[in-house]
Design goal:
Four copies of one chain form a homotetramer. In chain A, the strands form six sheets. In chain A, strands 1-2-3-7-4 form a five-stranded antiparallel beta sheet, covered by helices on one side. The first copy, chain A, is built from seven helices and 18 strands. Helix content of chain A is 26%, strand content 22%. By secondary structure, the first copy, chain A, is of the alpha+beta class. Chains A and D meet through strand 2 and strand 3 of A and strand 2 and strand 3 of D.
């Protein structure tokens, strides 16, 4: 069932295919009176924009956003904000070959099994271009949570992880990998370039941290802050795993090792001595940084032929030519940030609804 | 914001605290005409029931379910099914000591920060007893998807993982750990018993597999099958990580290594040569087994004193006496199965709604 | 599709059949810290309770509510509040005759057409007993909106309307009809008694007014306050029409006649010179009393035989013996009040979510 | 709380202000494989289009719809369908005078009370132009329910009702009033013209009937077919009342008079001898025509000065110059039809979800 709306009170609905005329998002439930024009959103889209280095897809899209509603005299009105981004660089001919063949790892076969009909150009609705709409919506969400700072980075590409001893936030904007470790960034140049030249692809891990989240956002059951983050992150194209705090490492720990002891803090709030929990306990924020890790698989679009079948059920080999990201995790960084902001904005408003 | 309903068309709402008179679930949207009485549900509750071995909490709850509505002459009517389980073995006095102190790793502090008021007895709403209601609801969900077989097992406790070369499904019911590897089960006896005797606790990983899911359940965006599974699993008490298919391992792989090649199958459906994707591509089931891994942290209830604060903001040391599971992941197995069944039932019905 | 949950952030889910062991409601999203015990709810149930006069059904139900969760030390905790009412006076034998025959005007035929299976005892899920659960939930909703006063009354039974010149609110509790006009109440005694003795039934109109609603609750589109009220009221058993403010009379008016002029008020708020709009403009409350009228049809359960068919499709005559209200609109008064309170509580919280 | 999405599984989200660059709808959950292009939608928009006679607003909008997503090779893909209509004839200067004054009967004051900020040009989000988006979405909904025929007409303008003895469906398209009675249409010319010339306005009643709805759509509680219709209709601008079947007339009837007797029908289905219920019993369709009546108030935009206040709280007189419909109910006909189609499409899919 197509369900292109995300969120409970701060909600957004996205639409658009890779090779249609445009794509967009309708942001609903936004508080009134927030200062908003296109220039507030554009920088986030620019960060996600393809074609900015040889390490991302060479599709060239300006990704200029237009605000079509919900803003008057420079401020949000509280009514739905329609955001539209036109597609300009569509080369549908690149996809002719795979119109009938199912690309392994892509949703092609699953789509046809579900709908019996699909827009095969560039992955249609499953294209990573859809994430531009989320990034635009996320820029609006950030206005709702000015007390929160959201930042993400690539932590690992393939087997090569950063060294947190060299973590330098300023470095993130200095390289095409959103990498906070200048040494690792150098190594990634080589790794991603090799994958690109080989017509292959490579996976990555993105880490996201939100600081400034007060204690008390979230819910004990089902609409837990961590459950909603898990849904938000797992819903990003190519994501296969989500961890909150220590994640799978917590499974190998014991109760003492995993405890986050508290002491009376100077400001009346507790001072935590560790953050194994990733800032969330029992589904509710604790006031510590909210932290999650997100695993991106290598894009399935590779030049190496892979055994597959076509829509007639016959054997065929598939190579995906087109223009693709050798490592989709990289451009996942602004998307992960956007989803974090969107979930937090929703939970801030939900908390306010119940508790006032 | 309290949101105790899960699901989109097949929905359930749970209620109840650890030390209240009862807990329950209201299952709504269930198809009519399914054969249902208490005996259909009870075996799943018995599998989750505490007090069955020394490796789980010694709280002794019969967990007898009563069906209060929605069933007539042995069949579901299509109207809401109210399931109730009475609490019988509540020892509130055990919790007096922690009424004012915040147990590190628990939701105590976050609850007070949110609501300013909480039922501290046994964790109140955050008690793992809430999962009994989900298990009961999950038993109803299984009736909606008779074509699907859902099974889960513990794959790892602390650092000790099973050897899949020794995987024997029949073994799962033969030991108190839901362990499919008889050799690992022996080792876990020692590990869990040591944790128990030390007043400590230990984490675990649960794996769940659903076979028989046809291709086509799920959605391209937001209501993705994998996103809903991630939400369902991350919403279980003590869970800190969720993977679909290869999960974080996919992040270290390349496109060739992560491909799931297809060949024409004997039955007209594709024969997949691998299942790195865990049975889900682009948010939609592929017809392969749907597989996920779930990380449980060690329970935070330990006898070792941990630095903490009380509700007045003063320093205190907290030991959690009560009766607790040394490894909550173990009893997580029936809960993980229930959540898988609940998500799949919902998506089967959603798919039918859209596609007929 | 069975959808037994109502509301957006303040939500309740009801369950239970007329002749099952119990019925109930789970109230979710309630703010924490509200003073609540059974005695807060019981008076509203007592007002709706059957068997209190010869003008209502003779089924004798104490309708004692039990709170099973969500309250600790006399205050709401913010977690789901489970309310249960046991059924005690069920005479299933009364219904044997109509197990196979479809009662005209009842949902019998529609149920079978939908579900192929129904609990025919007392109307099963369609029994007006379900409204007891709403009344209980409504009592909780009132705690959320202490600034609002909700009251309803019967305005008309059959053709006999009250005279608003004789409107006396104190009178409402003085007669078995919730009638604010002592003269009309006398006439209704005769009308309803005649209907009862004839084994017939009679329709009624209920008016509900909420004062103290501040300007600003509601939404411009879809989640309009008036649209949600319309849904809430039309969802009550036997209701066939809903009006906000002047309702259908506005259709016969012109712009001048229908205007609600404003003057500067003493308190800085506008002083309205009329309330044709019923306190809602553009889906949003104006600060005037919110007022709606609700039409109840005569109950379809009558002793006069009516032509019908049975489940085999054969002709039959149906008389509905059982014990029925000769005028269901009367006991609709507490239900209408409850639905008004539930909608307003939800919108207060929604407004707070968006605007703070 | 802004909530611009309507529906449960077949959903649409609208956006856009009267004087913004465009408005639109995103239709989500639509089944795949339906034949759709702009020409399928345009005729419904043309029927609602302003400026087609002197009896409607003189604003001249071509209301050309563009499909931006969700359709490939002429068929729906099952993914969100983005529909956009550009605004071309905006004369913002007309509204300068009322930027600060609250027009009585409009949402101006309520908007400011809620949001503290509003787009006052042409009513902003509360403009009847929003209904163009619904009409476009409704055209898509009709594709989902080919078995159903939806038609609406104006039944009454001011006090002048049609005579059903002269009902001629073919007549509806022959006059500018959607009037099925040629005699009444003549009278309405005079009535509406007088109102127009006087700078006044007049109310109307629209009736809508859907034939071909099978028995079984809807739900016993809350998601009742009639409750959803009531919400849908009351959510249309200027609507103040909704009736299903006999509506308020049922309140004056007795059980015998209100019964819809059944006989065995030729086709195995019941033959109903009356339709007081308007095709819905217990919230579920009976197989009879689904019928509702909708009351439109006279538009509040009149040239006669009305006492009011401005945003500073000072007294002022307001005349609404602009270009307005003297009788908004007339152009409500295509909107009522659209909402009926949208509700029915949703319920068809919901029924399929639960019952298969």
């Amino acid at each position: 069932m197509s369900m292109n709306t995300f969120g409970r009170v701060f909600r957004f609905t996205t639409w658009g295919e890779s090779h249609g005329p445009a794509l967009g998002a309708v942001v609903d439930g936004c508080p009134p009176g927030l200062l908003l024009d296109e220039s507030v959103i554009q920088p986030f889209l620019d960060a996600r924009r393809p074609g900015t280095s040889k390490f991302t897809t060479q599709r060239n899209e300006p990704d200029q956003v237009r605000i079509l509603s919900g803003v008057f005299e420079g401020k949000t009105t509280g009514t739905p904000i329609s955001l539209m981004i036109e597609n300009t660089d569509q080369r549908s001919k690149d996809y002719g070959e795979i119109a009938k063949a199912y690309r392994p790892g892509h949703a092609d076969y699953a789509y046809d099994a579900k709908y019996g009909h699909r827009d095969y150009r560039g992955g249609g609705r499953s294209s990573a271009r859809e994430t531009a709409a989320r990034v635009a919506a996320g820029a609006v969400a950030r206005l709702v949570i000015p007390e929160v700072r959201v930042r993400a980075w690539v932590e690992q590409i393939g087997d090569a992880a950063i060294d947190y001893a060299r973590f330098d936030e300023a470095e993130i904007a200095n390289n095409p990998f959103f990498c906070p470790d200048a040494v690792a960034a150098k190594e990634w140049e080589r790794i991603v370039d090799e994958a690109r030249k080989a017509g292959s692809s490579i996976g990555a891990v993105v880490t996201c941290e939100a600081t400034g989240v007060p204690a008390g956002w979230g819910a004990p059951i089902y609409a837990k802050l961590d459950a909603d983050l898990a849904s938000a992150m797992m819903g990003i194209n190519a994501v296969k795993g989500v961890e909150i705090g220590d994640g799978f490492a917590a499974a190998t720990n014991n109760g003492e090792g995993n405890a986050d002891p508290m002491r009376p803090g100077a400001d009346g709030k507790p001072q935590f001595l560790a953050n194994h929990a990733g800032g969330i306990a029992g589904g509710i924020s604790t006031g510590q940084p909210v932290r999650c890790r997100v695993a991106f698989k290598p894009t399935s679009s590779i030049l190496t032929p892979v055994e597959s079948i076509n829509s007639a059920g016959e054997a065929t080999d598939v190579r995906t030519k087109g223009r693709h990201d050798p490592c989709v995790g990289i451009r996942g960084v602004p998307v992960v940030e956007a989803m974090m902001a969107l979930v937090l904005a929703d939970h801030k408003m939900l908390h306010r609804a119940q508790v006032g």
